[in-house]
Amino acid sequence: MKEVTKMSDDFDRWYTDVIRKAEMADWSGVRGMMVVRPYGWAMWEAITRAFDDMIKESGHENWAFPLLIPQQLLIKEAEHIEGFGPEVAWVTRAGAAKEELEEPLAVRPTSETIVGHLIRRYIQSHRDLPKLTNQWNSVVRWEMRSRLFLRSREFWWQEGHTFHASAQEARDEVALILGYYRSIAEDWLAVPVFGGKKSPAETFAGAVYTMTLEGLMRDGVALQMGTSHYFGQNFARAYDISFSNKDNERELCYSTSWGISTRLVGALVMAHGDDSGLIVPPRIAPIQVVIVPIHRDPESRAKVEAFIGGLATELKAAGIRHRVDWRDERPGDKYAHWELKGVPLRLNVGARDADAGTVEMVDRLSRQRVSVPASGIGRRLTDELEAFQKKLFERALVYRRENTFELATLDEVVAHFKERGGFVWVPWSGDTECEERIKAEAGGVTIRTIDPDARPSGKCIVCGKPAEYRVALAKAY
RNA sequence: CGGGCGGUAGCUUAGCUCGGUAAAGCGCCUGGUUUGGGACCAGGAGACCGCGAGUUCAAAUCUCGCCCGCCCGACCA
């Protein structure tokens, strides 16, 4: 349990160490593919439950579509296959004799193509629209370089695919989902995000436009935390998804797709952790409160046990996810253990607490010890967890504020990213050549998102023409 | 996928140059003493030395191929 690399020494090693020592995930021995352990998966489950509730509320339905996509289907949308082609894995043989298949089958890297192909059966009339589908699944992308949770060859996600009778309705859907994603990032994961459109170079292959959310990790590197795409009629045209409108004319659907993935679990680690390990937001935490019993002899143990029994009953009644650590270890070892795992609140409970009718409460952020009355503990801890969630978000917000800048020239940008990370807002002409030059000269810095609100002032930092957009630059995972 | 480095017990590593009975710390098991910030003593289990070939009387050690991981690039939820 000891010896997690210090975050300040080597962020990348710290990240891997924490995930492995906190028992969240491991590499599997199959290149680039991970095994997600219960503690990590439980965090993903908290995200899936929250998001699934949101989309059900607005009429989306879960489906299951095939894992394998025939080659002919995959290649129908030209831009899409051009974008995803390099990272597709293929099944070319099957059966006892490993016979060559007549047509190679792609392992889905994303399912626009197979969903588009299949959904047309279920859409005939405007009365069948909108068709709001989602699936929870895993996809495979043949990544060359992998990183636990952030980039693995297989990852778990939800992919929503929706089909609409009008462009406006589809655009509204894209915005609605981006709002849900913002809520997941900010209200659940306590990670503040900048949201807006992607530049053309960063737009999803086959989309008209892509909306994104970008968070900032504690090493100053940005992370894309969710995307929502508007396809116009691009996929409907390629897959012939049409309907009869009210005037009995054939019309192509307008479609969208959107996804968040297990990457978000990595985001929570990198956005909140410290040298002692994880700090898990209460709403995501598999264990919100851990109770560490302290006792010397059988008598004190019996007393503490009875006292904790009462506490546990109250916590359960209050709906707090909790655990009592009865392992035969010393208290100090348990403190370090649960801090590494990022449990928001800890209660140290010994005989003298039992006598006094109090518990010693320690939160993972301040680590201050506070004696609180045992009576009404359920209510108190519920409030504390809520406050913790807020404090964690505020802390992340302050960090982002301190690491967000406004610059006016390419030289300044280049100099900035030599020294540090964070977000840098700049005016941009909208030209792809300017975007490419920023990337080349500032060492891999990319346009993360376009400011949806502010009108740009000044000139493009590259070409000097009047700027069309105000954009956030950052290095990104 | 290119360049560099590595893989020995659950984890971190020594041993490899110069071939000769596989080691340590942590973790794990048992017993005891302990327990309000990472305990101590004693005993014990645990290793196809990444996999496969080759050289040799003999390979963790030398050679070749493959697999997996790390770092740097190009690609990405």
At a glance:
The chain has 477 residues and is α+β, with helices and mostly antiparallel strands. Helix content is 36%, strand content 27%.
Topology of this protein?
Blueprint: H1 11-21, E1 25-27, E2 34-36, H2 38-57, E3 61-62, E4 68-70, H3 71-74, H4 78-84, E5 89-94, E6 99-107, H5 112-119, E7 131-140, E8 154-164, H6 167-188, E9 193-197, E10 209-216, E11 222-232, H7 234-239, E12 242-244, E13 250-252, E14 254-261, H8 263-272, E15 289-294, H9 298-317, E16 322-324, H10 331-340, E17 345-350, H11 351-356, E18 358-363, E19 369-373, H12 377-402, E20 404-406, H13 410-419, E21 423-428, H14 432-441, E22 446-450, E23 469-474
Parallel strand pairs: 3-7, 15-16, 15-17, 20-21
Antiparallel strand pairs: 1-2, 4-6, 5-6, 7-8, 8-14, 9-10, 10-11, 11-14, 12-13, 17-18, 18-19, 21-23, 22-23
Helix pairs in contact: 2-6
This protein binds one RNA strand of 77 nucleotides through helix 1, strand 11, strand 14 and helix 10.
Could you walk me through the main structural features you see in this protein, from its secondary elements to its overall organization?
The protein is α+β, with helices and mostly antiparallel strands and 477 residues long. It has 3 domains: 11-272, Bira Bifunctional Protein, Domain 2 (BirA Bifunctional Protein, domain 2), CATH 3.30.930; 289-385, 3-Layer(aba) Sandwich (Rossmann fold); 404-474, C-terminal domain of ProRS (Translation Initiation Factor IF3), CATH 3.30.110. It is 36% helix and 27% strand. The chain contains 14 helices and 23 strands. The protein has helices at 11-21, 38-57, 71-74, 78-84, 112-119, 167-188, 234-239, 263-272, 298-317, 331-340, 351-356, 377-402, 410-419, 432-441; strands at 25-27, 34-36, 61-62, 68-70, 89-94, 99-107, 131-140, 154-164, 193-197, 209-216, 222-232, 242-244, 250-252, 254-261, 289-294, 322-324, 345-350, 358-363, 369-373, 404-406, 423-428, 446-450, 469-474. The chain has a 7-stranded mixed beta sheet, sandwiched between helices. Strands 16-15-17-18-19 form a 5-stranded mixed beta sheet, sandwiched between helices. Strands 20-21-23-22 form a 4-stranded mixed beta sheet. A hairpin with a 6-residue loop joins strand 1 and strand 2. Helix 2 packs antiparallel against helix 6. It is globular and about 80 Å long. The two termini are 28 Å apart. The chain binds one RNA strand of 77 nucleotides through helix 1, strand 11, strand 14 and helix 10.
